[in-house]
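Incident review: delayed structure delivery

Summary: a single-chain prediction request sat in the queue longer than the usual turnaround. Root cause was a stuck worker, restarted by the on-call engineer. No data loss occurred. The affected request and its eventual output are reproduced below so the record is complete for anyone auditing the incident later.

Affected input:
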Amino acid sequence: MPENKDYRLVIKTLFGLEDVLSKELLSLGGREIKILNRAVSCVGDLGFVYKINIGLRTGLRVLLPLAEFKMDSVDEYYDKLVDIPWEKHFGLDKTFAVDVVGTNELLNHSSFAGLKAKDAIVDRFRSQTGDRPSVGRVGPDVPVHIHIYYDTIRVYLDSSGESLHKRGYRLAAAHAPINEVLAAGIILHSKWNGGMPVLDPMCGSGTFLVEAALIAHNMPANVYRDSFGFTKWLDYDAELYETIKNGMLKRAKEYDGKIFGRDLDTFALDAAADNIERSLFDDVIRLKRADFFTTEAPASKGLMLVNPPYNVRIAADTHEFYKQMGDTLKQHYAGWEVFWITSDLEAIKSIGLRPSNKWSLYNGELECKLLRFSMYEGTKKVHKLNP
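Output delivered after worker restart:
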């Protein structure tokens, strides 16, 4: 197991959320924060590793460095990996897998680099213990990450295990649900902290709603999870983990506001109800079967989170749909802040509103724009505000 010292951690995230993640890390006590591409690095000890796995809303994986070295040959790559004391990090009863990012002239395919790394880990265990651990192709106990950058090799233990977007509350899913990390990132972009009502008028399986409730109550994002990658490491400190988790839970706060979810799809609403009940926020979140175009706003002002359904197949239909949405916002939602994510970059022109801010994000492999519309109270025009 790594010593309890400071490490230069790498925390992966989605493209476009790096700045939001850096602010989260700072608020949780991260030091020497550096923004990277789809990642942020910072300095912290093992207790901090536990803390950010529990608490981060916009992190996907927390990687702890094991080794960094230069290589001049495939044999040297193998030898350097054999030199790492893998048997001190996890036992024979745990499965492992190797994920490789990048290539170089010698390791010109990530599968080849991963196979050599797997061989090195197995051979190290055999030489030290006389036996070998198994490779876990699905859901390994100990994921190992290797980053290749020219002749520089960086080796990490993945302290998260399953991606941190898998919170544990969403077991039921409607069509094309938004990633939990992306949903949280959009809410954090809005700087909402529970001060006014929230509405998701096309709520699907309720991801925006639960993430908003977590933020409003200052609850750790991964409080529902009972397992992380670090819980499989040798010398995992369960007492320290419980102390940190309980300390974070004590900072939770009451929230007497309202979070509204609406949808026309009864299947989606059933999925949302199941997820919200599992999240224990069914006393805060109000679900209703309703048509966005014919239903009045639930409050005079608030934050609206919009992830329109992607099942509008014909381009003309999408443009008309977006035009209707824009008209509805102008007519019924004066005083509201609207954060709208879409992958249909052409249909944006049909909304008929000028966004006060735009951000580039990715929803899976889909390039998206996050649009902010500040609906100025008392007029049907958009009032341009500073972010």
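Verification: The radius of gyration is 23 Å.
Action items: add queue-age alerting; document worker restart procedure.
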